[in-house]
Design brief:
With 502 residues, the protein is mainly beta. The protein has four domains: 1-170, Sandwich (Immunoglobulin-like); 174-287, Immunoglobulin-like (Sandwich); 300-379, Bacterial OB-fold (OB fold (Dihydrolipoamide Acetyltransferase, E2P)), CATH 2.40.50; 389-499, Beta Barrel (OB fold (Dihydrolipoamide Acetyltransferase, E2P)), CATH 2.40.50.110. The chain is built from four helices and 35 strands. The chain has helices at residues 300-306, 394-400, 447-450, 456-468; strands spanning 22-32, 37-47, 57-61, 78-79, 85-93, 98-103, 106-111, 119-122, 128-133, 137-141, 145-152, 158-166, 173-174, 181-185, 198-202, 207-214, 218-223, 249-250, 257-259, 263-270, 274-275, 282-287, 312-323, 326-330, 336-340, 354-364, 367-371, 374-379, 389-391, 410-419, 429-434, 437-443, 473-481, 488-492, 498-499. The longest helix is centred in the last third of the chain and has 13 residues, at 456-468. The chain is elongated, with a radius of gyration of 40 Å.
């Protein structure tokens, strides 16, 4: 089986070209006469045979049984008896095979696609491209085929001629599904035998499936535990996806799949028999909606629509306000509901936490509520944070504070407000004036924030200061219905909900 390319030190060695030489020889004759001596010189040119190239040349790479063995004789090139021409015929090569030529069983001076000293490559059919390597880059096969290769060292520069003579003759075929596939990658340090990220076979789809939580920039391939040589590992070339490719996916590498965003991903692999080095198979990847609810949960909007008193519901939401045991949760669609829970967790929760709540539906202060029997922290923060609804005008605020109590508990923002002192009309209450419309502000209480000096006491101190200085500012809060028709309040969980201009 073929082995994965291992980059070895590649050294550059300049080899002198072998050629012909001419030598001039002279003969001198002397004739004596009584009156003179005549000397004549005759020049003669002789041609010698080219100096024989005694180097040994080998094809090495993934085409070998023992890949990248520099002195292996499996693909030894044969020298012509009368010329410095070395040939080898009938090598099967498949797409993505990489190879080079070693000299005398050593990496020094190896001949490759680029970076070789004194070499011209002739590949008229463009069947080879640049592969990996250091200074000298390997040949990388672009077209399956059966090849003849000729190296002529009797020319300057030397020439390497690559000829595709036909289709591969001995085509290896992986016809039997091993039956066990899994992910291997950065999340398990590329340990081929680690089955932590196993894909389970689905008889209905006849594919292998798995759902995995992956970190940002995680890289992986789909592989079988028996494939210790990585011969049939599936990677980015096997991914089938939409066009354009999703922003969270990188398949530009010719090797591993790269996931750019942290999240949960559904990965499916369809096995297909592989022929030669063309590794078949199809990988599909779907990013799960980070806001999707697990089975058995009901969305907040569905609870409010059904509104069946005493029916037990389970849902999930982002905590946007907390006042003792009264909490307000909202999801990424803007649906919000009041939750009441007296358990100890209420004293540790923070705004922005994601919580799972369960309990019977009830009506409280004219709005829907879950009288929770369970509140569990799901996450410290939401993947998609809740953004406040910006109220544009006093008229819009008045309309919102009507009788549509399904809006109760939503996070809103009022820009450009003034505030009356704490204690109007009663303790922890104050009048917030927005575009001539007044809404009652209310300082929420939570032990988690009171201990952090950002809760009720700090809110009241800040509101009093803003009133004294007649400061205009922006305010964010939970707009919720009170105990009388048409009476609404704007609850402030922390001082950070009061946005004072610099």
């Amino acid at each position: 089986m073929k082995k994965k390319l291992i980059l070895l030190p590649l050294l550059m060695l300049a080899l002198g070209a072998c050629g012909s030489s001419t030598v001039a020889s002279s003969t001198t004759s002397t004739t004596s006469t009584p009156t003179s001596t005549t000397t004549s010189t005759t020049s003669e040119t002789t041609s010698e045979a080219p100096v024989a190239d005694t180097n040994v040349y080998r094809i090495v790479g993934t085409v070998q049984e023992n890949a990248w063995t520099a002195n292996d004789d499996e693909f030894l090139m044969t020298k012509d008896a009368d010329a410095n021409i070395f040939t080898i015929e009938g090598i099967d090569m498949f797409v993505d095979d990489e190879w080079c030529i070693t000299i005398n069983g050593d990496w020094a001076g190896q001949l490759g696609f680029t970076g070789s000293t004194n070499l011209t490559v002739i590949d008229t059919a463009t069947t080879q491209g640049e592969g990996g390597g250091f200074a000298v880059k390997n040949f990388k096969t672009l077209t399956d085929g059966n090849y003849d290769i000729e190296l002529n060292t009797g020319l300057t520069p030397r020439t390497l001629t690559i000829t595709r003579v036909g289709d591969p003759i001995d085509v290896p075929v992986v016809e039997e599904d091993p039956g066990e596939w899994h992910l291997v990658g950065t999340m398990n340090e590329w340990a081929v035998t680690d089955l932590t990220y196993a894909l389970a076979y689905d008889e209905t789809s006849e594919s292998y499936k798995g759902s995995f939580e992956l970190e940002a920039d995680a890289m992986f391939k789909v592989i079988n535990a028996d494939d210790s040589t990585w011969t049939y590992a599936r990677g980015s070339a096997n991914v089938e996806t939409e066009d354009p490719v999703p922003a969270w996916l990188d398949i530009t590498s010719d090797a591993a799949v790269k996931i750019l965003d942290a999240g949960t991903y559904d990965i499916e692999f369809f096995w297909v028999a592989s022929v030669g080095a063309t590794i078949n198979g199809v990988i599909t990847i779907e990013q799960q909606d980070p806001n999707a609810l697990p089975e058995g949960y009901t969305t907040i909007s569905a609870i409010l629509a059904e509104a069946e008193v005493n029916k037990v519901y389970k849902t999930r939401g982002v905590l946007v306000g907390i006042n003792g045991g009264a909490m307000f949760i909202e999801d990424n669609t803007g649906a919000a509901i009041n939750v009441y829970f007296s358990g100890a967790i209420k004293d540790t929760l923070l705004v922005g936490n994601v919580v799972d709540v369960e309990g019977p539906y009830a009506i409280y202060n004219l709005a829907g509520e879950i009288a929770a029997t369970s509140v569990v922290l799901f996450a410290e923060s939401a993947v998609t944070p809740v953004e406040p609804v910006v109220i544009a005008s006093g008229a819009e605020l008045t309309a919102r504070m009507g009788t549509d109590y399904s809006l109760s508990g939503q996070l809103v923002r009022l820009n450009g407000v003034t505030v009356g002192p704490v204690g109007t009309p009663s303790s922890n209450n104050y009048n917030i004036t927005f575009d001539s419309v007044v809404v009652i502000g209310y300082s929420f209480f939570s032990l988690a924030y009171e201990n952090a000096s950002a809760g009720r006491t700090a809110i009241n101190t800040l509101i009093t200061s803003l009133n004294t200085n007649t400061t205009t500012f922006d305010i964010i809060g939970v707009l919720y219905s009170s105990n009388s028709t048409g009476v609404w309040k704007l609850g402030l969980p922390t001082t950070s909900y009061v946005v004072v201009p610099a």
